[in-house]
Amino acid sequence: MDAPQILLTNDDGIDSVGFRALYEGLSAVGDVVAVAPADDQSAVGRTVSEAVEFADHEYGYAIHGTPVDCVIAGLGSICPDVDLVVSGCNKGGNLGGYVLGRSGTVSAAVEAAFFGVPAISVSMYIEGGDNWQSLATEASDFATAREATTYLVEQATTESVFAAADYLNVNVPFHDNTGVTGSIPMRVTRPSMRYEMGAEQNGGREIELRDGIWETMRGGSVDDPIGTDRRTVADGEISVSPLTAPHSTKQHDALDEIAAGYTSNTEATADTE
Which residues line the annotated binding site? Predict the structure, then answer.
């Protein structure tokens, strides 16, 4: 197989160290063009703009817009013939079903799926308490993510992985500049459905919104079921969740009856008028 054509994007910005790590790694196995935000666009979800400006960058193109803008601009105009979209590496985990719609990193992969292009979103969970932002400041700190992503690009694009999944959401644990990336297991997972968002009014007219999940992970007491993304990363392993877009639907007999009843009632009302 010829080297895959890869569109690389993210939400931390085109100059982030995690992005550079993936660009360098993927360039060894494919032809990579960067179409990524010019600045930090974290947690913007699937926000889309009406128009975006872009500038040349040493890796490709810097887009003044969101990750979804980058995918649309890339697949719709700049490089429409790519084989794969990779989004990342995000500094911070994107774990759990409730996070998927918020994450700019994951949203870029979802957008690619609507174009019919397979995608991989990649994030690195950093256990560092309130100081996690001060960690992982060098491209070498993303060695685990770079190796795992490169492996998946080489393997998943030659097998039938994307016949059953539209995109893969990958989360890796942070390992301080270690050389043991090959010894870290990779597990196929499902998004954890655990949810601990809460709100507390602080005196006046302000309400603080808090996610209790991260406090739990910092305490090292994650009790999510085995096989979920969060539990896998907390156990020091690489999580790969095969997901679909758009959201899947299921046959629902009770709802079918309700919908049919509405039609009948409408017809009955019309007959009496």
Answer: 11-12, 42, 90
